[in-house]
């Protein structure tokens, strides 16, 4: 029998099954339908099969060879049996990632109309601006709740329009808007071109260009469907607007391995297409295993948050904020990758926005500025740094950007003169490579290397190979560690899951900042890290951390074991430092197995109630 005839026969059977299951009782009320993401071998086949099953296609998602559609339970069962259907995933909700605060701050004097953008100085952006680098010619795609058309966001420092495009997947409005406020606040941190009284800009990259894609509603919520449509639009238009960066400050619950999740597949595809994706770790910390989706994607840049404790020129009291989500991921990858300022972050927002009206942000009285907190804001800081990096080094690939950003970041450590003998305040699962360092990331010469080494992103997308990280959990000692790295007492590569134990208490430094700041002045010539001192990080860093290149370089090929999806990742054996797989549970992969059967996780046990599931 020919393939065409087989497919035709299967469709007849499919229609018969759906008809029988749906209409067996003529008087029965219409069956409820839920929204799913259905993926298969090619888009046209998926559309055809969904429609044949009685489903209603709501979006075609070519970036993942799939569609979003409303299906009955019987249609789901029928589609899962078809050999060309790879995944059937609930179309669940995602949301903006910022924390609710409520306090009105009176603004007077010179700060009244332009509050100080102190977070820009915390990461050294002011030094980069002094070198003439402000993000010129670099386009950032903001995929969020939209953007209010404030002049400092629409126009660059020369009062020229920099909003190149607008797309609304929520209401299809033709002009920029942001009923929620989150997207506007994120845009302000990234590109606000207003100067404060000290002549510092209020945005990280004040001359960068923007395209804004709205995927979240008034309440700051969206779905896999709308976010994937937004990512697909960005990828489709990357050459038209020369999009280098996509900021995705959105979070959702992790319910599947990164490679089996349709939202993560879209994010991975954007990275593979040459777009550097920045996302947030989430605000569910401080416990381990709390990094959200798409922050759990191993390819992209995932950002956690720290605070300067309102002393932006004094690093000695800086600390990791407790809400910042921590790794490892359920796929054993170390996340976040870096940390950036994410507390008391000041940015623009409409006074009529949902966040403002709900008093979920500190209003700076008499202005359009609000103070918020979250890893969303930290991700926006990093997106701005990367815009500066691309102006200075326009030919960087996303993997090279990630490498430069991480290798120049500074781990939060206790006091000590020699990094070789220093001890980390927070583990690698909390701070990644450390606090971002704009001057070195943008200006340092002779940094060569790529992140995600050993991972073939196109094989990952095609399903030929999938990867797992090097993290493990040792039940006997109760610690999380990094495979291949000696378990030292440096406080960095091993973690017992507690918070703040590396410094003797939450956010307390036990010996000053020592060699890393010299009392601050790190970007004023006092330390000269960009003029010859950079080597201390590329040489000294690896000595005390146990080998930075080990965990950020090659990764293991996924071997079918789900590790944390069933039980904590096993520790390496004492003799070989390799994972002992002998007693590991090996559930079937999410998708079609070698026998052609479609296996899915038990979403009923993994989702936080049906309200997260999009229903008709």
Class inferred from helices and paired strands = alpha/beta
pLDDT < 50 stretches? 15-28, 101-112, 415-421, 493-594, 596-613
First and last CA, distance: 39 Å
Q: How would you characterize the largest beta sheet?
A: 8 strands, mixed
Helix content: 25-40%
How many β-strand stretches? 25
Roughly what fraction of the amino acids lie in strands? 15-25%
The value of Rg in angstroms is 24 Å
What is the arithmetic mean of pLDDT? 75
Number of helices: 20
Morphology = globular
What does this structure look like?
With 616 residues, this protein is of the alpha/beta class. It contains 20 helices and 25 strands. Strands 7, 8, 9, 11, 13, 14, 15 and 16 form an 8-stranded mixed beta sheet that branches. A 4-stranded antiparallel beta sheet has the order 2-3-1-4, sandwiched between helices. Strand 24 (591-592) and strand 25 (598-599) form a beta hairpin. Helix 1 (3-23) runs antiparallel to helix 3, helix 7 (182-191) packs parallel to helix 12 and helix 8 runs parallel beside helix 10 (262-272). The longest helix has 21 residues, at 3-23.
SSE inventory with pairings:
Elements: H1 3-23, E1 34-40, H2 43-52, E2 56-61, E3 66-71, H3 73-80, E4 85-90, E5 93-96, E6 104-106, H4 118-122, H5 125-130, E7 139-144, H6 151-154, E8 163-168, H7 182-191, E9 209-214, E10 221-223, H8 224-236, H9 238-241, E11 243-248, E12 250-251, H10 262-272, E13 276-280, E14 301-307, E15 319-320, E16 338-341, E17 345-348, H11 354-357, E18 362-365, E19 369-372, H12 375-392, H13 398-407, H14 428-431, H15 438-443, H16 457-462, E20 467-468, E21 471-474, E22 479-482, H17 529-533, H18 535-545, H19 548-552, E23 556-557, E24 591-592, E25 598-599, H20 603-606
Parallel strand pairs: 6-18, 7-9, 7-11, 8-9, 11-13, 13-14, 14-16
Antiparallel strand pairs: 1-3, 1-4, 2-3, 5-10, 5-12, 14-15, 17-19, 18-19, 20-23, 21-22, 24-25
């Amino acid at each position: 029998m020919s393939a065409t005839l087989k497919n035709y026969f299967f469709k007849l059977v499919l229609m018969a099954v759906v008809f029988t299951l749906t209409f067996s009782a003529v008087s029965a009320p219409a069956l409820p339908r839920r929204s799913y993401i259905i993926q298969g071998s090619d888009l046209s086949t998926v559309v055809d099969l969904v429609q044949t099953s009685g489903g209603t296609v709501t979006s075609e998602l070519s970036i993942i060879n799939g569609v979003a559609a409303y299906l009955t339970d019987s249609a789901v069962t029928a589609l899962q049996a078809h050999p060309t259907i790879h995944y059937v995933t609930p179309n669940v909700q995602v949301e903006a990632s910022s924390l609710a605060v409520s306090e009105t701050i009176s603004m007077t004097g010179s700060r009244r109309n332009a509050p100080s953008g102190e977070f820009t100085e915390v990461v050294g952006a002011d030094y980069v601006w002094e070198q003439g680098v402000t993000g010129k010619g670099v386009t950032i795609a903001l995929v969020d709740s939209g953007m209010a058309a404030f002049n400092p966001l629409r126009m660059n420092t020369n009062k020229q329009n920099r909003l190149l495009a607008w797309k609304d997947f929520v209401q299809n409005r033709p002009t920029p808007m942001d009923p929620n406020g989150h997207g506007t606040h994120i845009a302000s941190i990234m590109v606000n071109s207003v100067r404060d009284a000290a002549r510092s800009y209020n945005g990280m990259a004040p001359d960068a260009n923007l395209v804004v894609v709205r995927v979240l509603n008034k309440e700051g919520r969206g779905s896999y469907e709308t976010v994937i449509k937004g990512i697909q639009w960005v990828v489709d238009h990357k050459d038209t607007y020369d999009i280098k960066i996509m900021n995705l400050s959105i979070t959702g619950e992790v319910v599947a391995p990164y490679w089996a999740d349709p939202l993560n597949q879209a994010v991975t595809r954007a990275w593979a297409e040459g777009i550097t994706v920045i996302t947030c770790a989430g605000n569910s910390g401080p416990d381990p295993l709390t990094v959200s989706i798409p922050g759990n994607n191993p390819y992209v840049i995932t950002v956690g948050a720290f605070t300067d404790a309102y002393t932006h020129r004094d690093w000695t009291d800086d600390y990791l904020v407790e809400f910042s989500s921590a790794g490892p991921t359920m796929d054993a990858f170390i996340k976040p990758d870096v940390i950036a300022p994410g507390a008391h972050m000041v940015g623009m927002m409409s006074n009529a926005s949902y966040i403002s009206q709900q008093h979920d942000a500190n209003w700076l009285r008499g202005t359009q500025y609000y103070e918020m907190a979250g890893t969303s804001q930290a991700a926006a800081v990093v997106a701005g740094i990367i815009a500066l990096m691309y102006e200075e080094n326009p030919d960087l690939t996303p993997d090279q950007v990630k490498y430069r950003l991480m290798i120049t970041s500074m781990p939060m450590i206790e006091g000590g003169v020699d990094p070789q003998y220093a001890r980390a305040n927070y583990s690698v699962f909390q701070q990644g490579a450390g606090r971002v360092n704009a001057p070195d990331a943008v200006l340092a010469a002779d940094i060569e290397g790529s992140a995600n080494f050993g991972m073939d992103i196109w094989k990952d997308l095609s399903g030929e190979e999938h990867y797992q990280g090097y993290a493990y959990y040792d039940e006997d000692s109760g610690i999380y560690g990094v495979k291949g790295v000696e378990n030292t007492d440096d406080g960095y590569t091993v973690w017992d899951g507690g918070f703040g134990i590396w410094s003797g208490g939450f956010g307390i430094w036990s010996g000053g900042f020592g060699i890393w700041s010299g009392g601050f002045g790190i970007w004023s010539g006092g330390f000269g890290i960009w003029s010859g001192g950079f080597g201390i990080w590329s040489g000294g860093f690896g000595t005390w951390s146990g080998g930075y290149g080990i965990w950020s370089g090659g990764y293991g090929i996924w071997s079918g074991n789900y590790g944390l999806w069933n039980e904590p990742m096993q520790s390496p054996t004492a003799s070989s430092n390799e994972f002992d797989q002998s007693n590991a549970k090996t559930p079937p992969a999410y998708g079609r197995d070698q026998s052609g059967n479609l296996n899915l996780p038990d979403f009923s046990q993994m989702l936080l109630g049906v309200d997260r599931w999009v229903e008709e």
